[in-house]
Amino acid sequence: MSKEHAALNWTGEQWTIRDLNSRNGTFVDGRRLGSGERGIIAAGTQLGFGTSERWVCSDASPPQLSATTADDQEPIIVSGQQSLAIYAGEELLASVSRDIQGRWVLEREEEVTYVRSGETHSIGGRPWQLRLPEVSATTDVSDGVRTVTATRLRLLVAEDGTVHAQAHVQGEVIDLRRRGHHALLLGLARLRKADQAAGKSDFDAGWINYRKLQDLLDCTRNLINVNVHRARKQFEEHEFIDAGCLIERKQHTGKLRLGVSEVEILSES
């Protein structure tokens, strides 16, 4: 078998395999690819690499984000298909997610930087190399696809201040239950609704800087960042394709806001 037989690639929409001029051939569902030819891989696709042995693709989901560092110290990395978080103990050092335009965004404390796969950035005083899936230029938003930008958020506030959240989207009601990070959503939702009531445009409504938000929520900056990641992660787990848009960050300003414009706040009976 050739030293480099075939190459797998994520296009932003699907997995492909390309034969690298192998001696014994690369087979997709029993058909041999020509040299340099690409084949499409989906769940259930059978692959062969020059022998009678066949491999079956069991999962064709998009790749997860990853980050590596040469340092021997072991950080905690929480990764998914739309987000990445790097922790040192309980401190969130940085996170990566997609913005409303589909660009990858690295967030460190109050700093926002647009990044690409393969780039190296300083995080927590150490160099980290990011591996980020290619983002498709177009997204199918047909029926059944959940997007934050098309969501109506309902926040039910109990007497003790805890918040039960629901996301209404595509005719569905997604029960997000009662979570600690929903207090952040409530605080940001109240700000956005107040600005809307005051006549501010959707473009300008709801923005607040970290220091004021810390005072408003009576919490640390780290807890805000942790809850931003947890809130986005929860929406990602419920298959929202733009979960990073749940909390928007404005570059060079240190400001953030709730990315949902339609919010209902009710007292829970």
Can you offer a commentary on this structure?
By secondary structure, the protein is α+β, with helices and mostly antiparallel strands. The protein has 3 domains: 51 residues, no CATH class; 66 residues, no CATH class; 120 residues, no CATH class. Helix content is 15%, strand content 38%. The chain has 3 helices and 22 strands. The strands form 6 sheets. It has a 5-stranded antiparallel beta sheet with strand order 9-10-11-12-13, covered by helices on one side. The chain has a 4-stranded antiparallel beta sheet with strand order 4-3-6-7, with no helix packed on it. Strands 18-17-16-22 form a 4-stranded mixed beta sheet, with helices on one face. 28% of the residues are buried. The mean pLDDT is 90.
Distance between the terminal alpha carbons, to the nearest Å? 68 Å
Question: What is the mean pLDDT?
Answer: 90
Radius of gyration: 22 Å
Structural class: alpha+beta
Estimate percent helicity: 10-25%
Tell me the domain tally: 3
Total strand count, please?
22
Strand order in the largest sheet:
9-10-11-12-13
Q: Please outline the major beta sheet.
A: 5 strands, antiparallel
